[in-house]
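Consider this one:
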Amino acid sequence: MSYRHPAEPEFGGTIGRTFDESEAWWPEPKLPRGKPNVLLIVLDDTGFSHFGSYGSTIETPNVDRLAANGLRYSSFHTTSLCSPTRACVMTGRNHHTVRMRAISNMDSGFPNMRGAMPRSAATVAEVLRDDGYATFATGKWHLAPMVECSAAGPFHNWPLQRGFNRYYGFMQGETDQFSPEITCDNHLMSPPGTPQDGYHFSEDMVDQAMGMIRDTTSLVPERPFFMYMAFGATHSPHQAPQPYLDKYRGRFDAGWDATREEWYARQKASGIIPASTKLAPRNRGVEAWDDLSPNHQAFANRLQEAFAGMLDHTDHQIGRMVDFLAEIGRLDDTMIVVMSDNGASQEGQSTGVFDEMRHFNQLHEDVDAAVKHLDLIGGPRSHSNIPWGWAQAGNAPLKWYKQNTHGGGTRDPLIIHWPNALKGQEGQIRRPFAYATDIAATILDVAGVGMPDEVAGVPQMPMTGVSLKDTLTDPNAKPDRDVQYMEMLGHRGIWMEGWKAVTWHRRGKSFDDDQWELYNLDEDFSECDDLAEREPAKLKELTERWWVEAERHGVLPLDDRGAGMLFRASRQPGTPTARRRYVYYPPVSHIVADACPSPARSFTITATIDHPAGQGDGAILARGTINSGMALYVSGGRVVFDYNCFREHSRIATEVPLSPGAHEVVVQVDRNADQSATATLSVDGTVAGSAHIPMLLRIISSTGMDFGRSNAPVTDDYQAPFVYPGRISRVVIQLPEPATPKDRKAEVEAEARAAMTRQ
C-alpha cells in the first residue's frame, strides 16, 4: 500500500494487479463555485475626513461612487498604526496577541512585539487559499520583520508564505513612489520604469493586480479571488504625477482652520457624523492659521496640495480597478472593502517636512529655506509630509493623530460595496462600533468559511473579530461585541457599550500618572465632553476593565520606548546587521534599509573593482535617494563619493580618470562627537581628497542599498539605474569595534536612547 498523508482524501477507486482490474478515481477539486470575490483596498495614513464622501473637498469620485452604491461606516476603529492594524485585518485577532504591538521593524524582546504574526494566527488569505480561492496581494506588506526582508530571507513571513499565491509590492512601511523598492513574489526586482518615463508605483501595482485577476478569470473563471491591494498612499512620501499636483494649486489657501470648518460642515450635512457633533479644538502644538508667517503658510499649503494630489491620483487607480472588474463581469459579485489603517500622520511635525527623514533624525524643518523649493514638493525630489494642522483637518472632527488612541488616531473611514448583496441599501450609513479585527471575520463569513481549528497542522488561537455581515443588510444590526481595548506606544483606551476611556501618554513618564478621560461616544462623537469628573464610577469601571483586557490579550508589559526597539531588532544573531564587518560579492540583490550596515557610526567602504576600457561610468554602491543618501560611483571616468544630507552634498572626486584594470577604492568616514563627520576617498592607496559631512544621519533613507547600480539617483550626476559596466569583485563595509565590553554596552544604550525619539 502506498503512503497517504492524513490530509489527503482516501482513494475512492479500486486498485488491482493491472489497469484492467482497477477502477480510476479523481478527488473533487477545491473550486468554491458561487462564492463572492473579495477586493480589500487599504490606504495608509488617510484620516476620517479625507474622502469626499466623509467630508473632504479633495476629489475622490471613485471612492465616493463606491460609497454612494454601498455603505459607509462611521464608527470603524483601528489600532492607530499601520503594521498592527494590518495584522488585525489579516488575522482577525488583536495586535498584541499576534505579536505586532508596533511596526514590524521592531522587536521588544517580549511576546507582544516580535514583528511577525505567529502560525497559530492564520491569515484570511491562508484560509481562503485552502478553501480554493485564488489569493493575490499588491502594494505594502509591512508584516514581516524588516531584517528578514533581504534576499537572504528567511521568507516564512513574506506574503507567499502567509497565504498569497502571488505578490507584487514593497515590504517596508513606505517607498518612494517614483523609485520604489519592489518585491515580486519571493524576490526583489528593479523598478520597471523611471520618473522620466512617467512611472509611478501606484499605477504599476494596479496594473499588476489587474493582470493577476485577468489571468485567473481567463483560465479558471469558476474560481473566486481574494485581492489585497494596499497602497502606499497616503503615507509619506506624498508623490503624484505633475497634473495632479497642479490641479490643487491654491485650493487650500484659506488655511487649515477654515478648511477644517468646511469639512466639518460637509460631514454634518451628509450625515456621516451626528448633527450634534462638536468640532474638536485645535490640538496642542497647532497654531491658528492666521498667526503663521507667509512662508509657513506657503510651505504648509504646498505640502497639503501634494497630499491631495496623491490621494486624487490613488482614487483614480481605484477607479481603474473598479472599471476593470465591471468590464470582465466580476464587479457585481465582488465585495469591495475600502479602509484606512489609521488616522492622518503626526510625523510631519508642526511645520510639515520637505523630507520625512528629518523627523526620524530629530531635525526640525527650516521653513524659510524650504519655501525656496516649493515646486519640487510632490515630485521625485521630495519626500514630504503634512504639518499637524493639516493632519488634524484630515481627522476632522476628531482630535489627535495616528499613534494616538483618541479618535483622530483610531476612527477611520470604511466603505463596503457589493452590488449583489446590497440591493436597497445603497448609500446608507452604518453607525455601530466596528474594529479592524472584524474585517477578517466578515470576509470569512461572506465566503462561508470558518476559521479552522488547525491550519497547516498548527492549532489556531480564537479570533476576536466579529462579522459585520448582518450590518450589510440590516441598518439596526450591531456586531456581537461589548468591549474593545486599545493601546499604542503607551497611549491607552477602551470602548465598552458606547463609553470610551482614553489617555494620552507622555513618553518616559510613569503610566500611573496618565490622566484618563471619559466620553459617551453615543452622544459625543468627537470626544469633546470629558465626563471623568462627573462619572467617576463609570471611569473606574472602564479603567479597571482595561487591565483585565490587557491581561487577556497579551498587552503587557506596557512599553513606551517606541522606535527604541529598532536598534535591538537589528542586532539579533543571524540577521544581516548582527555584525561589524560586511562582505558583499556583487551582483547582489537590492538590500532593504533594515538589512544595511548602520549609517550612524564611522565606517569604511573598500571596493575591489576591475574597471573596463572605454566608457566605464556607473554606480559602485548607492544607498538612498535624491533626498538623502550616499553613493560611490564613477562619472566621467573619475571616482566620486557623494554624501547627500537632505540635498546638502559633501562630494569628493579624483582628479585623474581610472585606468582600465584592477583597483581598490576606499572611503573612510570618521564620525565626530557633534555627529558631523569627515570623509576621505582613496584609490589604490592614494588619497584623492576629503570632505566635511555636516551630519551623519541615524536613518539616512527608507530606501536601501545597491551594488553596481542605483535604485534611485542620489545626486544629479546620474539617473537610475546607472549600471556599472565593470566588475565589482567585492565590497567590504567595516564598522568600528568597541574597545571594551563597557564601550559596547554604552554604544547600545546610546543607540537605544537616540532611537526612542523616533517613531
User: Anything to note?
Assistant: DSSP finds 16 helices and 29 strands in the chain.
